[in-house]
UniProtKB/TrEMBL annotation:
Coiled-coil blocks: none
Domain annotation Macro: ranges: 1-175
Species annotation: Anaerosalibacter massiliensis
Name used for this protein in its record: O-acetyl-ADP-ribose deacetylase
Pfam family, one: Macro
Matches recorded under SMART domains: A1pp
Source domain of life: Bacteria
């Protein structure tokens, strides 16, 4: 557990669909119509209500975020964001990934949500190297907390040991 002012940042290993927070974040694509990875898992576990709302929203640009109900999931809302596809790092990937985290947190604040869980956006099918991506994720979250406050708990939910260890190392560097 890491603390900034009133906010705690936690690392959790496991499946984000099992988390009970005000919102969990989905690593979606521009259509918001579902896919594989964490997106597939969220729609599968949450049921059709999420997709119905996504269809009405009609898509989401990279780096932005949209909100829906969470259907059968234990959390209240799903915040769908779209990370960049990694194409070597010279195509604004870092900025877009930063924005994906930041805009998700902004939306959470708008809805007065206090607890939020993030998967590791863009580091699966979208190919963003975990070492670089975790730095950006942590930076974006810390800057949001310092500037905007409001959120009480940010949970990074990592699906595998390797990603968890990378996040742990980075957070320990920042906080110790
Ligand atoms: N809980 C937490 N993390 C998970 C889960 C889960 N249930 N399942 C997978 N992960 P990815 P992206 C991890 O590919 O790279 C989709 O098809 C996974 O191990 O889900 O942003 C979308 O529709 C990895 O570390 O998302 C898009 O088309 C991380 O989540 C595209 O993939 C992200 O991997 C988005 O690609």
């Amino acid at each position: 557990m890491y603390k900034i002012n009133e906010t705690t940042i936690n690392l959790i290993k496991g499946d984000i669909t099992k988390i009970k927070n005000d919102a969990i974040v989905n690593a979606a694509n521009n259509t918001l119509l579902g896919g594989g990875g964490v997106d597939g898992a969220i729609h599968k576990a949450g049921g059709p209500e999420i997709l119905e709302q996504c269809k009405k929203i009609g898509g989401c640009p990279t780096g932005e975020a949209r909100i829906t109900v969470a259907g059968k999931l234990p959390s209240k809302y799903v915040i769908h964001t779209v990370g960049p596809i990694y194409r070597g790092g010279e195509n604004r990937e870092a900025e877009l990934l930063y924005n994906a985290y930041y805009s998700s947190l902004k939306l959470a604040k708008e809805y007065n949500l206090k607890t939020i869980a993030f998967p590791s956006i863009s580091t699966g099918a979208y190919g963003y190297p975990i070492y670089e991506a975790s730095d950006i994720a942590i930076k974006s979250v810390i800057e949001f907390i310092k500037k905007e406050g409001h959120i009480l708990e940010v949970n990074f939910v990592l699906f595998n040991d390797k990603d968890y260890k990378v996040y742990e190392e980075k957070l320990n560097q920042k906080f110790n």
